Amino acid sequence: MRKWYFGAALFCFLLVNFLMLARVGPVTTYFFIFIWWSYVLTVDSLLFWRRGNSLISGLKAKFLLLIISSYFFWEFFELVNSQLANWGYAGSPVDPAVGAFAYSPSWKFAFKFLAFGSVLPGVLETHDLLKHFCLGKRLSFLGWEKTARFFKWPRWGRPQHVWRIVGLAMLIIPLCWPKYFFWMIWLAVILLLDPGIEANGGHSLFSELRRGNIRNLYRLLLTGLVCGLLWEGWNYWSGLKWVYDVPFVGDVKLFEMPLVGYLGFPVFAIECYIFWEWLCCQGRKVLSLRSMLRGV
């Protein structure tokens, strides 16, 4: 079963690449959706094969909730971008193989749902893959763990209300002055959500830093860089894709993304991780409340 799952997922991943290179039908237009979901399934199946569990096998039917959460998570940034105007979409959403059906609102929603719904699964699967292969231990010879003392600060996330106020300010300021402060958006979610995760029994990144544990931080930073390179590389070959208009740094590009913009992907991976941990905390609250109500 495990080998079959991995073999099928890997075959789909390779097939999607082949169909894109052959310029076949809707795969060319919607290449990003096809390739990213096949990547998610390939990574998940590899982990399931090697250790007997994975994100999808652990969540089961709840994996759909992760996809739905991912959709609304990115819709939040789409809403913010309506003010920032840092990215937009290019290319026709209509493929000859699909026809006029692609103009329908239901098709547009399905496309957005599949595209936005892949964000959190992709980041979490990549992070899990790096964690499985013990990235921290394997790179310890570089001496990077010695930097822990620079991050060990007792005020990370404390007091909670101060960090949340700063996070709220970093959410509002870019909406008022987007040209100069657009970058604050990618820090706001971290400051708003992480301080309260520890209090709710979750894995807070700030609490790890207070203890001098930096492996997860570096793993998340690398996760973001890996996902960013894959996202932008596959987006470049997609018929329908996003393009950027970032102030001051938009001239030198790698694929469609300005080179300096890749610094944002590591931070975005941290946001995804923290948002997922926050969601897990809310889920535990709901289950706890349900148990209490049953006991009444």
Brief overview:
With 296 residues, the chain is mainly alpha-helical.
Helix/strand structural class: mainly alpha
Name the helix and strand elements from N-terminus to C-terminus, one letter apiece: HHHHHEHHHHHHHHHEEEH
Largest sheet: number of strands, sense, barrel closure: 2 strands, antiparallel
Helix content: 55-70%
Total DSSP E strands? 4
Residue fraction in strands: under 5%
CA-based shape = globular
**SS summary, helix count:** 15
Any idea how many domains? Answer: 1
N-to-C span: 44 Å
Question: What attributes characterize this protein structure?
Answer:
296 residues, mainly alpha, two-stranded antiparallel sheet, 15 helices, globular
Explain the layout of strands and helices.
Layout: H1 2-21, H2 25-29, H3 31-51, H4 55-59, H5 63-84, E1 87-90, H6 105-116, H7 119-132, H8 135-138, H9 148-151, H10 160-176, H11 178-181, H12 185-197, H13 205-210, H14 215-236, E2 241-244, E3 253-254, E4 257-258, H15 264-295
Antiparallel strand pairs: 1-2, 3-4
